[in-house]
Write a structure and sequence with these properties.
The chain is an alpha+beta fold and 131 residues long. Helix content is 35%, strand content 15%. It has a single domain, classed as Orthogonal Bundle (Arc Repressor Mutant, subunit A). The protein has a three-stranded mixed beta sheet with strand order 4-3-5, with no helix packed on it. A two-stranded antiparallel sheet has the order 1-2. Helix 2 crosses helix 3.
């Protein structure tokens, strides 16, 4: 994969986030560094980075994709109210063996090289607003 200035700035900007932004957010921020960049260029480069396994694309909530600078398989939480995506942590800090959470027979013959685990519900901030 060729490293372009656009790709470099997009990746650098994404790496400043912990909130898994969408392409529109990244576009707004990248434009401050590269004012002539188009939204299409940002989308294409995010797709290239995700397809190469450098970042994660998360399709949650039926709206736009969210992007995570951490390409490792790890759990996420999607708030159905505020639409925010956040990281969850594996117990003991390590991802479990798939057979710890999925029946071994259903994994037979599969080669897992990616994926995501997303739990959905209402985040603590939104829950606090209800009280």
């Amino acid at each position: 994969m060729r490293t372009t200035i656009q790709r470099k700035v997009i990746l650098e900007q994404l790496q400043t986030h912990v909130d898994h932004p969408g392409a529109d957010t990244i576009y707004s921020e990248v434009r401050q560094v590269l004012p002539r960049i188009s939204l299409g260029t940002v989308y294409r480069n995010l797709d290239v980075l995700a397809n190469k396994g450098i970042i994660q694309r998360l399709e949650v909530g039926g709206d736009h994709a969210h992007f995570d600078p951490n390409p490792e398989i790890h759990p996420h939480f999607f708030c159905t109210r505020c639409r925010r995506v956040s990281d969850l942590k594996w117990k003991n800090g390590q991802s479990p063996a798939w057979t710890d959470i999925i029946e071994a027979e259903s994994l037979e013959g599969l080669v897992i090289d990616g994926g995501s685990l997303v739990l959905e519900g209402v985040c603590s901030d939104c829950s606090a607003k209800d009280k």
